[in-house]
Specification:
Layout: E1 2-6, H1 13-22, E2 26-29, H2 31-39, E3 45-46, H3 47-51, H4 66-73, H5 79-87, E4 95-98, H6 103-107, H7 114-119, H8 124-134, E5 140-142, H9 148-158, H10 163-191, E6 202-208, E7 218-223, E8 235-238, H11 244-257, E9 265-270, E10 273-279, H12 283-293, E11 301-305, H13 311-317, E12 322-327, H14 332-338, E13 345-348, E14 359-364, E15 367-372, H15 393-406, E16 414-418, E17 421-426, H16 432-445, H17 448-452, E18 457-461, H18 469-476, E19 479-484, H19 491-501, E20 504-507
Parallel strand pairs: 1-2, 1-4, 2-3, 4-5, 11-12, 12-13, 18-19, 19-20
Antiparallel strand pairs: 6-7, 8-13, 9-10, 9-11, 14-15, 16-17, 16-18
Helix pairs in contact: 4-8, 8-10, 13-14, 16-18, 18-19
Amino acid sequence: MRALISVSDKTGVVDFARELVSLGWEILSTSGTMKMLKEAGIPVTSVSDVTGFPEICDGRVKTLHPKIHGALLARRDIPDHMRQLEENGIGTIDLVCVNLYPFRETVAKPDVTMEDAIEHIDIGGPSMVRSAAKNWESVTIVVNPEDYAKVLEELKADGHTSRETRLELSAKAYTHTAEYDIAIASWMRPKAGLPEKLFLEYDECQPLRYGENPHQSAKFYKTLKPAPYSLATARQLNGKELSYNNIQDANAALDIVREFKEEPFAVGLKHMNPCGAAVGTDIVDAWKKAYEGDTTSIFGGIVAFNREVNLELAQLLKPIFLEIVMAPSYAPDALELLCTKKNLRVLEVDMEGDVKQQMRCTSVNGGLLVQNQDLETCEVTAGQCVTDIKPTEEQLRDLGFTWRIVKHVKSNAIVVGAGGMILGVGAGQMNRIGSAEIALKHAAALDCARAAVQPTLVLASDAFFPFDDCVTLAAEYGVKAIVQPGGSIRDEDSIRKCNELGIAMLFTGERHFKH
């Protein structure tokens, strides 16, 4: 039995080769791998000795030879194939252990040159992998060090790998070469001036019981690289498995949490829209204010925090029916208390580091819409004021707070707030005045005694006002400052109305539609 070993990732390969030799296998290898095995005292035969041909072209040509690929591709169950091997002095190769030059890592370097990238495109490796994988009925192909133990276990037990294992390893091998070719094509196409092709690479994270509705099937996939504020890498500490809708809602909540780092922040969310959110002096204060903003809608919702959940906070959360609690960490006694609710999903989410730009994909019939994530949120400043009336410092802070929230509300979006908390949200209405009415009525319905000692109301809109009707309505409910993108042909009407009614208005020049 012969095994050909030629790897770039040399993790565990010495021990793997040593075990094969102890089982009576002959090892064939090439340059770098062969040197490493010899230094470890493992008997190894050079591929050049097998082919009778030296490595040439600075190692570009090593294994591209009939004595290698004939040995891999010949079907053992076809007598004519075996006769041809014998006539040409070719012995079979029964196991291939190969992984490829690190192209992806090479081109990730900021100073990589075209020449360096090209030299890290593997040719012989993928060829051997594909040949061995095609003949999986007879040849075991191993591309991942994680599979060494399983292969050795079966060889020790039966003298050969099982048919099921060889098929599994073959599928992994083709995945390995497919990902490799995608990396090369993705890097080279723009340099060649070719139209972009979108290659998506995601690993299955978990199958889901169903999608948005029970009759829809669904799975959860994750990106190849871990990222902060991601459910794909979150640790579930308690509760039932996440559903499709849970994941959608929880991701929307994490998008909002991502906006707030400096101050303790809490958000409650339902159907991908915030129903309560607040900053506070500490995380308990933030939650009390967020919960006060809408004690009804949070029922059956999701809550997320940007600070550790302590026992006092856990005691406030426990009586409320919630689907998910998310935070960067939990005090041991707080976690113990939350875990007494067996169905409550408790997630520990990495919130360290900045979120890097990623694509947002939305499928449509026969196609795919792709856009960059809406990560930018401009700072709200006094210099953006377009009215004679100017905001106070307190109002300016609240305008900045509501502006960071409104971008995460379904359009048409209106958010009313005061004192670093949400008081009303109007989401997803077909006209902006409808959203404004919902948000303002909800704010007005809160405890008037509490509102009397709070700062004056402010309002944020995700897009411009097409008419001045939203300003008029806002004034009726006591709003004293508004932030919006501006850009309407009737902006002057809204500015004039604000000046008449004693309202400060700020234009950010930045729209945040969320469909």
